[in-house]
DNA sequence: TCTTGGTCCTTTTTT
DNA sequence: AGGACCAAGA
């Protein structure tokens, strides 16, 4: 039986309340994951709900994985078998897979990432409006927003108020048709398609309502309209809903999140019960106080006051550095020193920043100090050309209609198939209503193309068909390896890379990708599941499972990540760097007047720290190629001055700096003797 | 078709 | 500073 005695009274109340819809307002570090996981165990053990009737939805793969592990630990081996814990996008993917026909897709459909989508939109706009590409990003964002708001192309055309809106709506409409033709969905479709399916097909909805009898949603403040609609439809008039959220940690409004969904719950579920978790188990008093003070500058729908009984702890430090290089150096050297002083591991330190590009300098300096580090997130891996290429091949293996993938790889590595050939092929395919891949082996091409070109296309088509057969017939991994051999991808990298070193690194990435798929298949076999290539590629695109591998080698490394990526995580020692106006808060946020969201981001960053928090800024920063003066962030002035050690606010003389250095050295000698 | 060199633009955050 | 994109030449 579940043990709820480790929970505090509020937490226990939240875990045990199953008689109606429940909103848990969980402040940072208030143990909400404990509540969710124990509640799941309670539902299984005490309420007799079968695990396969329970679904917990999160926003990141990391959170989903952690939750799964913790539930497994509570319920014992197999006790949670059949339980669904996944991201919204993953859940959506599964729904579409199981409702393929109704949803209007074919097996093996592709999931396109933003780059792929942008390419399609660019083509559409080019073709339809002769647009030069300046509008593409705007249009892409707008389409994404429309989808997040559950607005279909027809709705959009109907609603359009201006010429520009009409243009976007039409582009949206064509774009959506092209996706269908490619048998592909984008990220937003993973939410919108299932939701529309539920809305328009009652029999489908009933099926899923029968399956999911209890729904738990984490980070509710991050849901968008479409996601909320899905939740409402799934729950219907029943009582099985628990949502957990914190309006102060809403940092995804820019991608369509509606923090007001928290307050909408009260209207949509009149019997809603609200439980607040206000005790923080993570941070020292001074850190928490600082966080509270900062967030006090924002308006609040739900009042809450976080408190902690962990003692006051060390003051928060603000370090002014001469420039960004010195800033990074300072942090790197401090980590070296503090690791010894506190007997801490590298993994106890996190360096947080606003934008991914800020990791560069930090990386350089950590290397210089021989500090092991890990950068998480960033587009780094999937943004790489070699990965996009191979993913293109994989997508084409499982979805021959994926013209976007076809276009990416048809001439990579070089097959002497140029723009003219591709253009003609595309026209032909369009006329015949087939995909470009299947058009390559059709007879009608002779009329349009030179025999040479026809031959090259045909060879490609037949070759890929062969690989596909192998991939499905027996060992998929072997087929993929064979494919890499056939196209001599290594050779391609060797001659397209600047240095042999770079080529080697790229090839390593490719192998990493292949290994990931391999591992995934192996792992599933262990548990007795079967993983198709479709599953594997889907997971890859949704960024699932990569971190898993990273986590497996629980290595001792300093963690580098964006403030966004840090949500939900905690570290004993946290550095937040680049605390400057125009950087944090970001210039665009200042211009767009979304300071409140930036402040929440600051709040998220501060509340990651358990024991020590250090904020740094640089007086001069190298940016866009040249050096500019900076102003320290307004958020620094919002911190409680009495709890702050602000070094460098008033100019320190070189003597003072020297003295500080000697004090540090003396401290080290005290601790470790003369080295 | 491929390579080269020049220009211009960038840097917000992610499933 | 670094990368993407494009025009012109081999």
Automatic annotation (TrEMBL):
Report the InterPro entries cross-referenced here. Answer: DExx_box_DNA_helicase_dom_sf, DNA_helicase_UvrD-like_C, DNA_helicase_UvrD/REP, Helicase_Rep, P-loop_NTPase, UvrD-like_ATP-bd
Q: Can you give the residue ranges of the UvrD-like helicase ATP-binding domain? A: 5-284
The UniProt record gives the binding positions of ATP as 26-33, 282
Enzyme Commission no: 5.6.2.4
Q: Which residues form the UvrD-like helicase C-terminal domain?
A: 285-568
Function, in words: Rep helicase is a single-stranded DNA-dependent ATPase involved in DNA replication; it can initiate unwinding at a nick in the DNA. It binds to the single-stranded DNA and acts in a progressive fashion along the DNA in the 3' to 5' direction.
Stretch list, region Disordered: 640-661
Compositionally biased intervals (Basic and acidic residues)? 646-661
The record, for PANTHER family, names:
ATP-DEPENDENT DNA HELICASE REP (PTHR11070:SF64), UVRD / RECB / PCRA DNA HELICASE FAMILY MEMBER (PTHR11070)
Its recorded name reads ATP-dependent DNA helicase Rep
Keywords from the UniProt entry: ATP-binding, DNA replication, DNA-binding, Helicase, Hydrolase, Isomerase, Nucleotide-binding
User: Does the record's keyword annotation contain Hydrolase?
Assistant: yes
**Superkingdom of this entry's organism?**
Bacteria
Name the family.
Answer: Belongs to the helicase family. UvrD subfamily.
| UniProt xrefs under Pfam families | UvrD-helicase (PF00580), UvrD_C (PF13361)
What is the protein's quaternary organization?
Homodimer.
């Amino acid at each position: 039986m579940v043990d709820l005695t480790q929970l505090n009274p509020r937490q226990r109340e939240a875990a045990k309340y199953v008689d109606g819809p429940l909103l848990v307002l969980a402040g940072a570090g208030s143990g909400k994951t404990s509540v969710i996981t124990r509640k799941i165990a309670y539902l299984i053990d005490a309420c007799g709900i079968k695990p396969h009737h329970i679904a917990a939805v999160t926003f990141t793969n990391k959170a989903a994985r952690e939750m799964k592990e913790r539930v497994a630990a509570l319920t014992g081996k197999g006790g949670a078998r059949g339980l669904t814990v996944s991201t919204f996008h993953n859940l959506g993917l599964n729904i579409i897979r199981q409702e393929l026909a109704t949803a209007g897709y074919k097996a093996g459909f592709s999931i396109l990432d933003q780059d792929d989508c942008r390419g399609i939109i660019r083509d559409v706009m080019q073709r339809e409006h002769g647009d030069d590409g300046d509008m593409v990003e705007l249009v892409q964002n707008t389409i994404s927003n429309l989808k997040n708001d559950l607005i279909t192309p027809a709705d959009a055309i109907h609603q359009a108020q201006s010429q520009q809106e009409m243009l976007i709506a039409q582009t949206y409409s064509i774009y959506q048709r092209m996706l269908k033709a490619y048998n592909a969905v984008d990220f937003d479709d993973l939410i919108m398609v299932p939701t529309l399916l539920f809305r328009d097909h009652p029999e489908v909805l009933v099926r899923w309502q029968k399956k999911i009898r209890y729904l738990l949603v984490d980070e509710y403040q991050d849901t968008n309209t479409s996601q909320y609609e899905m939740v409402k439809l799934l729950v219907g008039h029943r009582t099985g809903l628990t949502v957990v959220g914190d309006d102060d940690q809403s940092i995804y409004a820019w991608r369509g999140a509606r923090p007001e969904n928290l307050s909408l719950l009260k209207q949509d579920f009149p019997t809603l019960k609200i439980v607040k978790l206000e005790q923080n188990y993570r941070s020292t008093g001074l850190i928490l106080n600082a966080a509270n003070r900062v967030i006090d500058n924002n308006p609040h729908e739900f009042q809450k006051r976080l408190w902690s009984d962990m003692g006051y702890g060390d003051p928060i430090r603000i370090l002014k550095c001469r420039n960004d290089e010195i800033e990074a150096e300072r942090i790197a050297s401090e980590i070296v020193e503090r690791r010894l002083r506190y007997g801490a591991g590298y993994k106890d330190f996190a360096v947080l920043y606003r934008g991914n590009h800020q990791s560069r300098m930090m990386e350089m300096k950590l290397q210089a100090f021989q500090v092991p580090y890990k950068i998480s997130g960033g587009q780094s891996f999937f943004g790489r050309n070699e990965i996009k290429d191979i993913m293109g091949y994989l997508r084409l293996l499982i979805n021959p209609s994926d013209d976007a993938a076809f276009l990416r790889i048809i001439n990579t590595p070089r097959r002497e198939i140029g723009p003219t050939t591709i253009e003609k092929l595309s026209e032909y395919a369009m006329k015949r209503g087939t995909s470009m891949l299947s058009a390559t082996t059709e007879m009608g091409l002779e009329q349009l193309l030179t025999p040479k070109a026809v031959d090259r296309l045909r060879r490609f088509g037949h070759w890929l068909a062969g690989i596909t057969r192998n991939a499905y017939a027996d060992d998929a991994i072997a087929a993929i390896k064979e494919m890499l051999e056939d196209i001599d991808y290594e050779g391609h990298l060797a001659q397209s890379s600047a240095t042999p070193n770079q080529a080697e690194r790229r090839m390593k990435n490719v192998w990493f990708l292949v290994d990931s798929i391999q591992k995934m298949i192996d792992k599933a076999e262990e548990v007795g599941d079967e993983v198709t290539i479709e599953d594997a590629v889907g997971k890859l695109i949704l960024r699932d499972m990569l971190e898993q591998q990273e986590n497996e080698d629980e290595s001792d490394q300093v963690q580098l990540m964006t403030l966004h990526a840090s949500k939900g995580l905690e570290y004993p020692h946290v550095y937040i760097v680049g605390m400057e106006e125009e950087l944090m808060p970001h210039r665009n946020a200042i211009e767009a007047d979304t300071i409140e969201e930036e402040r929440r981001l600051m709040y998220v960053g501060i509340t990651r720290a358990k024991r020590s928090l250090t904020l740094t800024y640089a007086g001069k920063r190298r940016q866009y190629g040249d050096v500019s003066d900076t102003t320290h962030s307004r958020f620094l002035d919002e911190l409680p001055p009495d709890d702050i050690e602000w070094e460098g606010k008033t100019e320190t003389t070189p003597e003072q700096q020297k003295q500080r250095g000697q004090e540090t050295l003396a401290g080290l000698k005290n601790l470790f003797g003369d080295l």
